[in-house]
Amino acid sequence: MGQEALHWPARIVSEMVRLRIHERYPESNYPVTFHFEEAASKEEADINILWAEGAHGDQYEFDGASAKKNILAHTFFPGHSEPLNGDIHFDDAETWETDLTAATNYDRRFFPYVLAHEIGHALGLQHAKKQEAIMYPYYKNTPLDEIKLDLDDKCAINWNYVGTSKFCLFVWLMSEIVPIHNNSDQMASSSEVLCNFLLGLHAYRGSPEYVASDSLEKEFNGVIKE
User: Fold this and answer.
1) What is the CA radius of gyration of the chain?
2) Would you list which residues are annotated within the binding site for Ca(2+)?
3) What pLDDT is attached to residue 222?
4) Which residues are annotated as a binding site for Zn(2+)?
5) Distance from chain centroid for Cα 157
6) How far apart are CA 150 and CA 136, in angstroms?
7) Which residues are identified as catalytic?
8) 50-88 residue pLDDT tens
9) Across all residues in the chain, what is the average pLDDT?
10) Binding site members
11) pLDDT at position 105, please?
């Protein structure tokens, strides 16, 4: 897939930025790999990360720190006009933390989680409906070792860089009209039914060990490239 280069201010801990996404997709027979390396200069970078407050020259002003829901960052899709395409901007009025124990829901933000979300946009991913997805549009305090691609995210990358998939259309349809979740009260008395467009109808009995999204992952791993 080639390499994407980044340039960032020296104040950011470099290991938090040097991310490598290496996910193998059963539909492709080869790994989809993105290598992120620090660029020597802004001009050489494919993705530039900027911290700014308020108006900062791109027609999308930041709204400052707030205890309410507000804009933490924005990213320009790869198809946006140069030189902003792929660039990531963070609101410098926010207090950013690289230590989760120092982060709170509103007044201190956990930088790695927001960075992972914005890198998704830089790669062309749009917002997801599924709450477990990295591309879900609302901030969450998620530990660094738990920041992983959800099936919804994998489908988005697969769609952009490998090809279209009826299975992924199904995943997104489920996210739209039938939220995939298990409630302990529901599991005691009901089964959860998932309809796969490619493999027929599958019924899964709800149990304390059962997670619907895990079942979908197993289906994803068995889909043949269309």
Assistant:
1) 19
2) 46, 63-64, 87, 91-92, 94
3) 45
4) 56, 58, 74, 89, 117, 121, 127, 135
5) 10
6) 10
7) 118
8) 888 888 888 888 877 776 667 888 888 887 877 887 888
9) 67
10) 46, 56, 58, 63-64, 74, 87, 89, 91-92, 94, 117, 121, 127, 135
11) 63
Q: Which fold has domain 3-161?
A: Collagenase (Catalytic Domain) (3.40.390)
Tell me which residue has tokens 């007044």: 107
What local confidence, expressed as pLDDT, does residue 196 receive?
A: 33
- Contact (CB, 8 A) for 83 and 46: no
pLDDT of residue 91: 87
* Burial class of residue 77, CB neighbours in 10 A (0-12, 13-18, 19+): middle
Largest CA distance in the chain: 60
Intervals of the chain under pLDDT 70: 1-33, 67-69, 105-106, 177-226
Domains of the chain, by residue range, sit at 3-161, 166-222
